């Protein structure tokens, strides 16, 4: 883990900005960055981006021997990996305390809170159960990894569907996705971790960015460190399943109380978005439209960098004030050549309705179960 | 043996012979000696062409020599008077030469200069034109 | 083997690319070739521990991450191919005693993953501003039962093909940089595949130039 | 592939024109180009540019700084080691800044520089094989515009944005300079230090600078007027 240097003037200026009621990127205290969830073509794989922080989550399943103490329960395994892709200061396959911290919080939030019905994962008591493995890969670390990772875990678990199983006598048949519709995982409730940054012990800021996180956890010169990161794990029924504090101790309790109220409506918002995006992903799959990560490749990200999500922004700076005519031009010439057309030498564009015989539930006709296993 | 590529100032032989010049003579001889010695050493690798060829290509790693950028430290409307003073010191030259208030426009100036030169050649009496130069302080 | 190959009937999968997809990396690119999607991040030159430094050139470290978690030998194999290609492409001698890390994340694998990863690595290197000798393009093709060459095979064609050949060409004089193949094929099939892929690599280089021009006339 | 001035070039292209000019006269080959035995090859992707006295370079997009001699950079002091400060300039290694290279610094009265301070310094020594060295004084021992930058705010951006705002024809500083008093230091290593009287003005300045990266000249002007109105409109 290489050293990340923070200058005094950054610390001083940010503390001043926060104490005067503003934030560097123009958000107010309880406003979060833009949340986008995009699903891949397989079940249980999704990329969640919270502002510029991006996390990839992938769920996979296999049949294993259950634990002796829990013979009739499936196993859930969560693994967080931070590669040098997240930021230059991370080194390859090196367990940093950040990965341990994230792993521990996610396990508390998704395993200990019993949000997944593990009994439904049991195939044969004491012999065969499903083991779900959630792999979290941090793609870009722009602050608030815990919230982004937890949304990714929740979305991928909720989106994941495991193959159907039929038992006849002592023989067990696992059907491929094409033979029988896969079974979604059963979630009792939808917990999400919400993170807050605490500045000089009385200001609560939600969804801290990278610089806000590093400033509030850095020890300021005039003695000790009055900042910290408070993580609240809550589900849509406002039940609390996780509370974690890193950094300075809190001595006024209404701060935690305020955090819980904020977390409640933020969590409601997130869970609704997760459910909505899974539902419309399923409808797209019914309509046989090929949904794929390649849809997140657009040219408007570069434009948005210049306009919407600037890292330093005035509170009510909105981009539309620049004469709309310029914007139209920018957008217009983008639409004419959305994709470099002369490279589509392959007649079928990915978005067209023409479907190449693909894995997945869509084509029933000529499949024999042998040849098309996952 | 290739002469020294750079023309070196050499003291005449007679001066070197003098008694008090003994030590400098030995130094120069030692220098010559080790230059030749070196040359002999790598002569099979270093060709004359290598020794005399001067590259026409100058690699430059920085953009500041390519695009003429203004200085990076600026201050406006009295924020940092010291920097503003430095800025005024550097930029006036351009301003003055840039939009200097010209009471005589350039074309008129050029026409006069031509007339001036032709008149000077015809009359060939320089005295009339020395007067202006004296006025310049 | 100067057989004339006209490039009209070549079939290359549609390619979509975006630069600067990751704000924290020095250079990043996400590329989709057909339905296979990869995301590559390049960080460098960075400082690395003493023992892994080398005096005359920078140390290149390539990390291939699959979607599923368990690291496998196949990843190490892909890493070594990508490292070997980048080693020749990057002018490492300009950044001695430093380290360059290339991290490849597989997002969708519908065939041709390694050639998509190689092309995406090249685009990420271009975005990172690291000095390079040349640009490289990876093309894959399959030899089916009847022996004729199918360029950029789809998933089915790849699984049912007799052999899969992958070639990486460099842009200076279209020389072969790396070649790897699976399955058995005849010598003549190899020759023809080589020529067809070399001709097809022009399309990829034109794609690179188009992406760079799209981004540079904005900046 | 052959490339000519003004083209979009990729590494591996070579430029005939440069080698032609190179035969006769001195040629300065800037960043992004490399002279090899037969041709001058392009090593970075971007637009090939030329300036009159035979100066050629490639304007490419880059975020990571490679130290180059003579460039003014903004660094953060990270360590005091003996009689030198270690300064992070965003390149692969930290640069060395001797405590004597400040105006009026002697063995006895050392310059008041703390760890975490931001300095605006010139890159004196910068080669690929040596550790970069910074100085805060010019050859006459005067500090000129260099030295420690107190409070204000520093942020990172791409090297292109620095070259864009320091370009004399860029309308950004022109349209901002008579809006509100502010101070600015742009380091060639992709870091900008800004300072204004109030916090909102500083944020507005940062917003204008970062917003200008992908905008054309007219859009920059309209953005600046837009930001100035927002700033003026709100008393808070």
From TrEMBL, chain A:
<dbReference type="GO" id="GO:0071038">
    <property type="term" value="P:TRAMP-dependent tRNA surveillance pathway"/>
</dbReference>
<dbReference type="GO" id="GO:0034473">
    <property type="term" value="P:U1 snRNA 3'-end processing"/>
</dbReference>
<dbReference type="GO" id="GO:0035925">
    <property type="term" value="F:mRNA 3'-UTR AU-rich region binding"/>
</dbReference>
<keyword id="KW-0694">RNA-binding</keyword>
<comment type="similarity">
    <text>Belongs to the RNase PH family.</text>
</comment>
<dbReference type="GO" id="GO:0034476">
    <property type="term" value="P:U5 snRNA 3'-end processing"/>
</dbReference>
<dbReference type="GO" id="GO:0000467">
    <property type="term" value="P:exonucleolytic trimming to generate mature 3'-end of 5.8S rRNA from tricistronic rRNA transcript (SSU-rRNA, 5.8S rRNA, LSU-rRNA)"/>
</dbReference>
<protein>
    <recommendedName>
        <fullName>Exosome complex component RRP45</fullName>
    </recommendedName>
</protein>
<dbReference type="InterPro" id="IPR001247">
    <property type="entry name" value="ExoRNase_PH_dom1"/>
</dbReference>
<dbReference type="GO" id="GO:0016075">
    <property type="term" value="P:rRNA catabolic process"/>
</dbReference>
<keyword id="KW-0539">Nucleus</keyword>
<dbReference type="Pfam" id="PF01138">
    <property type="entry name" value="RNase_PH"/>
</dbReference>
UniProtKB/TrEMBL annotation, chain B:
<dbReference type="Pfam" id="PF10175">
    <property type="entry name" value="MPP6"/>
</dbReference>
<protein>
    <submittedName>
        <fullName>(apollo) hypothetical protein</fullName>
    </submittedName>
</protein>
<dbReference type="GO" id="GO:0000460">
    <property type="term" value="P:maturation of 5.8S rRNA"/>
</dbReference>
<dbReference type="InterPro" id="IPR019324">
    <property type="entry name" value="MPP6"/>
</dbReference>
<feature type="region of interest" description="Disordered">
    <location>
        <begin position="115"/>
        <end position="137"/>
    </location>
</feature>
TrEMBL record, chain C:
<keyword id="KW-0271">Exosome</keyword>
<dbReference type="InterPro" id="IPR050080">
    <property type="entry name" value="RNase_PH"/>
</dbReference>
<dbReference type="GO" id="GO:0071051">
    <property type="term" value="P:poly(A)-dependent snoRNA 3'-end processing"/>
</dbReference>
<keyword id="KW-0698">rRNA processing</keyword>
<dbReference type="GO" id="GO:0006364">
    <property type="term" value="P:rRNA processing"/>
</dbReference>
<dbReference type="GO" id="GO:0005730">
    <property type="term" value="C:nucleolus"/>
</dbReference>
<dbReference type="GO" id="GO:0000176">
    <property type="term" value="C:nuclear exosome (RNase complex)"/>
</dbReference>
<feature type="domain" description="Exoribonuclease phosphorolytic">
    <location>
        <begin position="12"/>
        <end position="130"/>
    </location>
</feature>
<dbReference type="GO" id="GO:0016075">
    <property type="term" value="P:rRNA catabolic process"/>
</dbReference>
<dbReference type="GO" id="GO:0000177">
    <property type="term" value="C:cytoplasmic exosome (RNase complex)"/>
</dbReference>
<keyword id="KW-0539">Nucleus</keyword>
<protein>
    <submittedName>
        <fullName>(apollo) hypothetical protein</fullName>
    </submittedName>
</protein>
From TrEMBL, chain D:
<comment type="similarity">
    <text>Belongs to the RRP40 family.</text>
</comment>
<dbReference type="GO" id="GO:0071051">
    <property type="term" value="P:poly(A)-dependent snoRNA 3'-end processing"/>
</dbReference>
<dbReference type="InterPro" id="IPR026699">
    <property type="entry name" value="Exosome_RNA_bind1/RRP40/RRP4"/>
</dbReference>
<dbReference type="GO" id="GO:0003723">
    <property type="term" value="F:RNA binding"/>
</dbReference>
<dbReference type="GO" id="GO:0071034">
    <property type="term" value="P:CUT catabolic process"/>
</dbReference>
<dbReference type="GO" id="GO:0071038">
    <property type="term" value="P:TRAMP-dependent tRNA surveillance pathway"/>
</dbReference>
<dbReference type="Pfam" id="PF15985">
    <property type="entry name" value="KH_6"/>
</dbReference>
<protein>
    <recommendedName>
        <fullName>Exosome complex component RRP40</fullName>
    </recommendedName>
</protein>
<keyword id="KW-0963">Cytoplasm</keyword>
<dbReference type="GO" id="GO:0000467">
    <property type="term" value="P:exonucleolytic trimming to generate mature 3'-end of 5.8S rRNA from tricistronic rRNA transcript (SSU-rRNA, 5.8S rRNA, LSU-rRNA)"/>
</dbReference>
<dbReference type="GO" id="GO:0005730">
    <property type="term" value="C:nucleolus"/>
</dbReference>
<dbReference type="GO" id="GO:0000176">
    <property type="term" value="C:nuclear exosome (RNase complex)"/>
</dbReference>
């Amino acid at each position: 883990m290489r050293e990340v240097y923070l200058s005094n003037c950054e610390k001083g200026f940010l503390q001043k900005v926060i104490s005067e009621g503003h934030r560097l990127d123009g958000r107010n205290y309880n406003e979060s960055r833009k949340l986008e969830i995009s699903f891949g073509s397989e079940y249980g794989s999704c990329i969640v981006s919270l502002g510029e922080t991006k996390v990839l989550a992938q769920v996979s399943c296999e049949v294993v021997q259950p634990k002796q103490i829990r013979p009739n329960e499936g196993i859930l395994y969560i693994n967080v990996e931070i590669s040098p892709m997240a930021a230059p200061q991370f080194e390859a396959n090196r367990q940093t305390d950040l990965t341990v911290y994230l792993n521990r919080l996610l396990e508390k939030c998704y395993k200990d809170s019993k949000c997944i019905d593990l009994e439904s994962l049991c195939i044969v008591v004491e012999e065969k159960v499903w083991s779900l493995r959630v792999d979290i890969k941090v793609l870009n670390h722009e602050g608030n990894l815990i919230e982004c990772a937890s949304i990714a875990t929740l979305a991928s678990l909720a989106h994941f569907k495991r193959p159907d199983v039929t038992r006849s006598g002592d023989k067990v048949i696992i059907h491929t996705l094409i033979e029988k519709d896969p079974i979604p995982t059963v979630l009792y409730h939808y917990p999400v971790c919400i993170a807050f940054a605490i500045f000089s012990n009385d200001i609560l800021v939600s969804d801290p960015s990278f610089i806000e996180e590093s400033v509030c956890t850095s020890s300021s010169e005039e003695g000790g460190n009055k900042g910290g990161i408070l993580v609240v794990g809550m589900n849509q029924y406002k039940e609390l399943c996780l509370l974690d504090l890193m950094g300075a101790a809190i001595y006024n309790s209404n701060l935690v109380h305020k955090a819980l109220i904020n977390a409640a409506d933020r969590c409601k918002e997130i869970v609704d978005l997760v459910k909505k995006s899974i539902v419309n992903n399923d409808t797209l799959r019914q309509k046989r439209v090929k949904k794929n990560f390649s849809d997140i490749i657009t040219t408007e990200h570069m434009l948005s960098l210049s306009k919407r999500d600037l890292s330093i922004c005035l509170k009510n700076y909105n981009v539309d004030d620049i004469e709309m005519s310029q914007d139209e031009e920018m957008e217009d010439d983008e639409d004419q050549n959305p994709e470099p057309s002369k490279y589509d030498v392959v007649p079928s564009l990915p978005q067209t309705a023409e479907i190449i015989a693909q894995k997945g539930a869509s084509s029933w006709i000529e499949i024999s179960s042998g040849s098309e296993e996952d | 043996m290739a002469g020294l590529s750079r023309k070196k100032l050499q003291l005449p032989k007679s001066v070197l012979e003098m008694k008090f010049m003994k030590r400098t003579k030995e130094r120069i001889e030692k220098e010559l000696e080790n230059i030749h010695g070196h040359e002999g050493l790598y002569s099979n690798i270093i060709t004359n062409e290598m020794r005399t060829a001067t590259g026409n290509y100058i690699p430059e790693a920085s953009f500041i020599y390519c695009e003429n950028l203004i200085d990076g430290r600026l201050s406006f409307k009295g924020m940092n008077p010291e920097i503003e003073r430095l800025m005024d010191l550097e930029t006036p030259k351009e301003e003055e030469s840039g939009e200097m208030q010209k009471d005589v426009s350039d074309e008129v100036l050029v026409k006069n200069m031509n007339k001036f030169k032709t008149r000077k050649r015809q009359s060939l009496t320089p005295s009339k034109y020395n007067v202006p130069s004296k006025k310049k302080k | 083997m100067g057989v004339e190959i006209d490039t009209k009937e070549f079939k290359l999968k549609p390619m979509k690319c975006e630069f600067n997809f990751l704000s924290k990396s020095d250079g990043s690119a996400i590329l989709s070739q057909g339905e296979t999607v990869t995301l590559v991040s390049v960080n460098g030159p960075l400082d690395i521990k003493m023992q892994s430094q080398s005096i005359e050139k920078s140390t290149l470290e390539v990390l291939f991450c699959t979607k599923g978690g368990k690291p496998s030998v196949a990843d190490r194999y892909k890493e070594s191919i990508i490292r070997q290609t980048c080693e020749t492409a990057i002018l490492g001698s300009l950044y001695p005693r430093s380290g360059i890390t290339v991290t490849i994340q597989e997002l969708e694998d519908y065939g041709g993953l390694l050639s998509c990863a190689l092309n995406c690595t090249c685009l990420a290197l271009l975005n990172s501003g690291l000095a390079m000798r040349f640009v490289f393009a990876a093309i894959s093709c399959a030899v089916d039962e009847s022996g004729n060459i199918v360029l950029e095979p789809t998933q089915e064609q790849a699984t049912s093909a007799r052999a899969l050949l992958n070639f990486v060409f460099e842009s200076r004089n279209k020389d072969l940089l790396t070649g790897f193949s699976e399955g058995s094929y005849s010598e003549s099939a190899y020759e023809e595949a080589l020529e067809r892929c070399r001709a097809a690599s022009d399309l990829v280089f034109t794609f690179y130039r188009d992406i760079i021009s799209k981004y540079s006339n904005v900046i | 592939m052959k490339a000519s001035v003004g083209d979009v070039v990729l590494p591996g292209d070579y430029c005939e024109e440069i080698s032609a000019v190179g035969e006769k006269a001195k040629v300065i080959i800037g960043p992004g180009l490399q002279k090899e035995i037969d041709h001058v090859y392009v090593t970075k992707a971007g637009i090939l540019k030329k300036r009159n006295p035979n100066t050629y370079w490639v304007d490419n997009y880059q975020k990571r700084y490679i130290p180059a001699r003579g460039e003014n950079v903004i660094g953060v002091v990270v360590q005091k080691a003996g009689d030198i400060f270690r300064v992070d300039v965003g390149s692969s290694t930290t640069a060395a800044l001797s405590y004597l290279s400040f105006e009026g610094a002697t063995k006895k009265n050392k310059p008041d520089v703390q760890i975490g301070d931001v300095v605006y310094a010139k890159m004196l020594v910068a080669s690929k094989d040596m550790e970069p060295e910074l100085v805060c004084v010019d050859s006459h021992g005067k500090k000129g515009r260099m030295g420690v930058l107190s409070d204000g705010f520093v942020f990172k951006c791409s090297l292109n944005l620095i070259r864009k705002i320091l370009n004399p024809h860029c309308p950004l500083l022109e349209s901002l300079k008579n809006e509100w008093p502010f101070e600015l230091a742009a380091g060639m290593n992709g870091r900008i230090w800004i300072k204004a009287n109030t916090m909102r003005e500083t944020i507005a300045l940062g917003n204008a600078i970062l917003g200008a990266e992908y905008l054309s000249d007219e859009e920059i002007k309209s953005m600046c007027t837009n930001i100035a109105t927002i700033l003026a409109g709100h008393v808070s």
